Amino acid sequence: DAKTTQPPSMDCAEGRAANLPCNHSTISGNEYVYWYRQIHSQGPQYIIHGLKNNETNEMASLIITEDRKSSTLILPHATLRDTAVYYCIVRVARRATNKLIFGTGTLLAVQP
Amino acid sequence: ETGVTQTPRHLVMGMTNKKSLKCEQHLGHNAMYWYKQSAKKPLELMFVYSLEERVENNSVPSRFSPECPNSSHLFLHLHTLQPEDSALYLCASSQRSQEYGYTFGSGTRLTVV
User: What is the four-CA torsion angle of B44, B45, B46, B48, rounded to 10 degrees?
Assistant: First the structure.
């Protein structure tokens, strides 16, 4: 699976949009981009995933560049409860044991 | 409630004890996983089970022994652990042949004294 690069930490003011970047310059054509987050001492929580097109759900939006070498997770109106470590992972989907491998992620601190 | 339930939530055990961690999923998934998260470290994948067959063991010491009796249950049997094995142990499940990711439990916080 391709490797990803994320900034170690970011701050965001409460109520503002949080834009979390991820570089995955070696991504393959059949690899999806997944985002998870982990609130302190809890299990990771799935946020969103995409292949080529931009995606949106009730939690966030995912913007993938046309060359697919980078993406941005957008939390439109960050709250204090969004403070967490955010992981960007690329992997081939639909394969039985294709592992979800976590890096160090980005610690997002939402400030009041 | 995430659909993946882990028990106990907290466990303190001595180095000579034998204990087991339990994971149960109610999502109809057919693959299950154990991860370990030590303090200030990324999650490490320990074991992968697909259709109740262990398909991966990432060089985990034999003092950790997984068991998957059916597609809904996963155990991690622990014996003669070391203090450095203290960590958050997370269980996850997923569905083969679907692009959706994993669902994680809340974890068991293990302290070895």
Answer: 170
